[in-house]
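Milestone M4 deliverable, item 7.
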Amino acid sequence: MVVTYNSAEHIEELLDSIPASMGTLAYSVVVVDNGSSDSTVELLEQRADVIAVRSSNVGYAGGMNRAVRASPPADAVLILNPDATLDNGAVPAMLDVLRKPGVGIVAPRVREADGSLSPTLRRGPTLGRVGGLSFTGWPAFTERIEKAAEYDTEHEVDWAVGAILLVDAECYERLGGMDESYFLYSEETDFSLRAKDAGWSTVYTPNASAMHIGGGSGESATTHIMKQVNRIRLYRRRAGTTHAWFYYGMTVLIELRRALLGHDKSWPTVRALLRPSLRPPALNAGGSILPR
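Output delivered:
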C-alpha cells in the first residue's frame, strides 16, 4: 500500500523494486494519490501492475486506510512510502517474523541513499524524551535509537518509522486502521502503541532490508508545525491532559531555542503553538492552546 503526493520523481523506482522483493508471494499493489499536481497519476495509470485510486488530500493515514479498503483480501498489509525501495526477498523475510505469535508489525533494516544505516527504531514518547537529546545516548532522554548494535539483531521495539512496515491484516482491522485525525506525522507511532496496548508487538528484523531516501514530499514550516502539534496530541491522548501541559511547555521552549539558533521553521512553529488559529486547518486540533 502506497500513498503518493507529488511523488513522480520516486514512485516508479519503488514499484519496479516490488516484484523481486516479493519472491513467490502473491500480492497486489494499491496506490492512493492524495491530489498530486505533478505527473504522479499519469505514471500510475500507465502501469498494469498497480491499482491506482484518485483521492483528494485526506492525509497519509486517510490515504493508507483507503488503500487497504481498495485492496483485495490479504493476510498482511505492506505499508510503503513512495520514496522507498525494497531489496530482493525482503517481504518473505518480514512475513516469517510476522507469523510468529503475538507479532503485529514488522520493520526491516533501512539504509539511506548513500548506503549508511537509517536509524528508524524509536522508543515511546515520554517527558524525558521530548527534547530529542540523541547526543546523550541515554535511553531516558532519547526517542530515536542511534546505536548501530541495536540494528544487528531481531528484537521488539516500541515503534519504528513508517516508511516500510508489514502489518498483520487482522491487527490493522481490529485497530480500525490508522488514526486519520493526525493527517500527517505520528500516525505510525500511534498505530504501533495502540497495537501494543491490544497485545500485538512491533518487531525489528535485520534479515529484511530496504532503502528510504526520505523527504520525498519535502518539509516546510507547515509540515514542521504538524509534526510538533501531533507529537503533543499523541502524548495528551496517551498520558492525559495534566502531563501533556508539561510536554507542551517543553516543546515550546525547545522550538524557541531552535529558532534562536537559526532554524527557520521553528519561529512559525512557536507562533502556531502559542496561537491555535495559526495551526494547519487539516489537523482540526481544536481552538485550545493544548492541541486535542
